[in-house]
């Protein structure tokens, strides 16, 4: 009995212990099921993100009823996903029990709706919300633009902040099945919160340059959208076998208008149509009103010239050109053997009888060019640099991939092109990056041939903006070497500039071996028009023995000349380091001159003021009172110099101090000068810019009661105007000896301490100060502390042999223009002739 009782007790205790263990199990983890990603949710169908989802704890309890969801997508309280929002919706499932939280991400993809049978667009009436119109591969926002798209009252609402380009922002739809040689009408209803003109495009977006294939080339469609609902439409005929394109609504800056607005669109529709009557004339490409070629150059008036008609397409073969000489007599060709002027009259007519004409004035120039080739290895005498190649190639690497190889063969470069691709003329490129200078005229020349007759393009372009400094399309190659040369002026800044041959899908492209040799880019040797245009002329030169690796510079710091020596390799002779006055002095015989200057240095040292007529006079040097010991503290020093009888040659003024510094690899030793003066007793000052604050070769005029001054500050001309007179009182100016007939560009870069208007002008004093600028001057507004870059193009019809005065006016301009005193900081005034 005792044993039975004991066994019963032990059994009860075991059950109690087991129950106790089960009650002590703790929750440490929550696991979700049914949360696999879904990639094919049909547009507009019902999808509940909670359906089939469970949350089970490791304590074997079901916590599904505690699930909450988090997402930027629209999900109802009951878990229904908004499937009219196309794209990927990230959904986060969360369950929290006590201090245990379970989380799981899930990605749900809502597909675009499909087009209704018989319709070319998806959801053109927006009955399906924004579906079909929010593809991030189509819609584009950049350049400061903003765009928010939503559905409102059965229409598409687009809130627009216009960017800096016409296509920023844009929305649209691709993969519209346009068929070859069919005419379509695109129509839509729209309104805007404010009147806004938009650009309408049809074509295929590309993933690389040129980024877009235009389905209506030469046909621009702009529409002014008003504040009331209205219907808009346009037609185009599809000339390509391409069903990948679509329509685009471009809402950015158009012309000078950059308008923000809220816009609404509805009933966007594309239907087959019939073409309207053709009343539009063809358009030319590759023509400019002014062109030039060099003496001896070959010239084909049709090279690079094309014509396009919206209806007939490429009508280049129908171009007719009539050539007239300077007496307007018709000639058969341009004579490039001598300088002269020709008139080229181009005409083109389409099948409907619409005619376009264009007149070109061609100048044959006898210009000189530097022997230096801006390009590297243009004769291919050396192998292509493998580390930093001077010449590179590029080809289309998608779709119809371009296939080619390039190498140097027998001292020339061969491009063996077996497939030129199909993306455009640029689908195969032969390139060298170059550094060009704004305002400089260049001559490009090269020898080229092809194993079969074909054409190529040549372009000098910026790699990022694709701004073309020069382009010659349609260069016709034969199986024999031909020499081509082109003259152009760089009229923009030149970052990332490419000297580029386009060898791809040109109009007459063909598999071939193209051979290049003697490729040159040379600067024209031209006298400057305006001088000291960047205000970097100091009138003094810092000299150092750079042939041994020394490094020094001369600058103006806080209104003083600073000669900085950062490396010195030889301290054996005084002439190894010098400060030299840039203009030689014509002195009187047997005369004493006084030379005064302020100086100090990074350490105590001795300067040797030196006056010499150079090697031509056997280093006939004026005797001075000796060397000058300077310290680290600024002080004024005076020496005298007396000439003798031999003063037929002018004298050079300099300091020599090469023995004052021991050689060193790196450092910052310096000498400072200020208030340099050289003159005879009671005589005029003979030095320019002894104060280190003069703006050399520019004159400041305070006439007419105006007050102010002009000083050189940190490499810029700073004009301080205290009181104003007439429009040209005060003004800064420079005289030109004349101007040849041609096209010119003036560039001014200025900032101001006040908001006002300023004026630039070119006048001819001998003509009663008549202006040669259209309108009599060029006025522009400046803002406070904002650098303004101003370009002023103008044309001189005939050679001007009289002096021409450029002036920058700071006076009272009159009329509605704002005229105020202030400080005006000018960093550049550049004038150059534009030769195309």
TrEMBL record:
Signal sequence, renumbered to the chain: 1-25
Domain CBM-cenC, first and last residues per copy: 119-252, 373-505, 529-653
Top-rank lineage group of the source organism: Bacteria
InterPro entries, sorted: CenC_carb-bd, Galactose-bd-like_sf, Ig-like_fold
Keyword field: Hydrolase, Signal
The UniProt record lists the keyword RNA-binding: no
Alphabetized Pfam families for the sequence: CBM_4_9 (PF02018)
Name of the protein in question: Carbohydrate binding domain-containing protein
Species of provenance: Paracholeplasma manati
């Amino acid at each position: 009995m005792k044993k039975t009782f004991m066994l019963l007790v032990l059994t009860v205790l075991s059950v109690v212990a087991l129950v106790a263990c089960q009650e002590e199990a703790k929750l440490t983890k929550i696991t979700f099921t049914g949360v696999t990603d879904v990639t094919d949710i049909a547009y507009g169908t019902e999808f509940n993100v909670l359906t089939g989802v469970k949350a089970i704890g490791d304590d074997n309890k079901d916590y599904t009823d505690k699930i909450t969801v988090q997402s930027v997508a629209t999900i109802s309280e009951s878990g229904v996903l908004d499937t009219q929002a196309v794209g990927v919706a990230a959904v986060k499932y969360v369950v929290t029990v006590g201090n245990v939280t379970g989380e799981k991400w899930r990605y749900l993809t809502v597909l675009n709706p499909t087009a209704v049978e018989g319709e070319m667009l998806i959801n053109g009436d927006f009955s399906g919300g924004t579906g079909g119109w929010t593809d991030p591969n189509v819609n584009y926002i950049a350049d400061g633009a903003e765009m928010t798209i939503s559905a409102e009252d059965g229409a598409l609402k687009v809130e627009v902040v216009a960017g800096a380009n016409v296509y920023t922002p844009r929305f649209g739809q691709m993969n519209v099945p346009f068929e070859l040689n069919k005419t379509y009408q695109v129509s839509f209803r729209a309104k805007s919160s404010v009147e806004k003109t938009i650009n309408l495009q049809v074509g295929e977006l590309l993933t690389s340059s040129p980024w877009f294939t235009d389905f209506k080339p030469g046909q621009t469609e702009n529409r002014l959208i008003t504040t009331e609902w209205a219907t808009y439409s346009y037609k185009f005929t599809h000339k390509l076998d391409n069903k990948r394109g679509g329509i685009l609504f471009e809402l950015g800056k158009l012309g000078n208008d950059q308008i923000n607005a809220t816009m609404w669109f509805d009933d966007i529709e594309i239907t087959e149509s019939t073409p309207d009557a053709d009343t539009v004339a063809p358009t030319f490409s590759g023509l400019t009103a002014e062109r030039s070629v060099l003496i001896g150059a070959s010239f084909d008036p049709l090279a690079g010239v094309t014509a396009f008609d919206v209806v007939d397409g490429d009508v280049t073969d129908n171009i007719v050109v009539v050539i007239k000489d300077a007496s307007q007599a018709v000639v058969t060709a341009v004579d490039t053997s001598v300088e002269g002027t020709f008139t080229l009259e181009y005409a083109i007519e389409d099948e409907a009888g619409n005619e376009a004409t264009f007149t070109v004035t061609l100048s044959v120039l006898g210009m000189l060019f530097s022997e230096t080739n801006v390009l590297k290895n243009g004769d291919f005498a050396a192998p292509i640099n493998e580390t930093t190649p001077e010449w590179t190639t590029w080809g289309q690497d998608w779709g119809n991939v371009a296939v080619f190889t390039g190498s140097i063969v027998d001292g020339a470069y061969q491009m063996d092109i077996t497939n030129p691709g199909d993306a455009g003329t640029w689908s195969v490129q032969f390139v060298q990056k170059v550094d060009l200078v704004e305002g400089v005229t260049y001559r490009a020349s090269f020898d080229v041939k092809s194993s079969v007759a074909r054409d190529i393009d040549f372009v000098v372009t910026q790699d990022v903006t694709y701004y073309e400094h020069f382009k010659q399309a349609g260069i016709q190659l034969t199986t024999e070497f031909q020499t081509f040369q082109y003259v152009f002026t760089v009229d923009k800044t030149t970052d990332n500039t490419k000297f580029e041959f386009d060898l791809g899908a040109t109009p007459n492209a063909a598999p071939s071996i193209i051979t290049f040799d003697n490729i040159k880019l040379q600067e024209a040797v031209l006298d400057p028009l305006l001088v000291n245009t960047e205000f970097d002329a100091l009138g003094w030169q810092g000299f150092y023995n750079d042939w041994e690796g020394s490094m020094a510079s001369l600058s103006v710091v806080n209104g003083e000349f600073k000669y900085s020596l950062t490396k010195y390799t030889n301290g054996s002779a005084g002439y190894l380091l010098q400060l030299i006055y840039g203009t030689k002095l014509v002195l009187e015989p047997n005369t004493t001159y006084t030379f005064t200057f302020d100086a100090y240095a990074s350490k105590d040292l001795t300067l040797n003021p030196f006056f010499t007529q150079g090697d031509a006079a056997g280093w006939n040097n004026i005797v001075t009172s000796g060397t000058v010991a300077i310290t680290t503290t600024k002080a004024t020093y005076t020496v005298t110099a007396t000439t003798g009888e031999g003063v037929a040659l002018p004298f050079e003024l300099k300091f020599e101090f090469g023995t004052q510094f021991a050689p060193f690899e790196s450092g910052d030793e310096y000498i400072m000068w200020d208030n340099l003066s050289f003159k005879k007793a009671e005589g005029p000052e003979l030095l320019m810019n002894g104060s280190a604050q003069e703006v050399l070769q520019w004159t400041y005029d305070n006439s007419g009661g105006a007050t102010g001054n002009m000083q050189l500050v940190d490499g810029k001309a700073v004009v301080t105007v205290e009181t104003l007179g007439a429009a040209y009182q005060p003004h800064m100016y420079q005289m030109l000896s004349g101007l040849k007939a041609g096209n010119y560009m003036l560039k001014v870069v200025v900032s101001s301490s006040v908001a006002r208007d300023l004026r630039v002008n070119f006048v001819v004093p001998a003509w009663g100060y008549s202006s040669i600028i259209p309108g009599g001057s060029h006025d522009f507004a400046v803002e406070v502390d904002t650098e303004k870059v101003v370009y002023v193009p103008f044309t001189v019809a005939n050679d001007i042999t009289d002096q021409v005065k450029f002036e920058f006016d700071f006076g009272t301009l009159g009329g509605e223009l704002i005229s105020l005193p202030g400080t005006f900081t000018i960093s550049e005034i550049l004038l150059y002739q534009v030769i195309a």
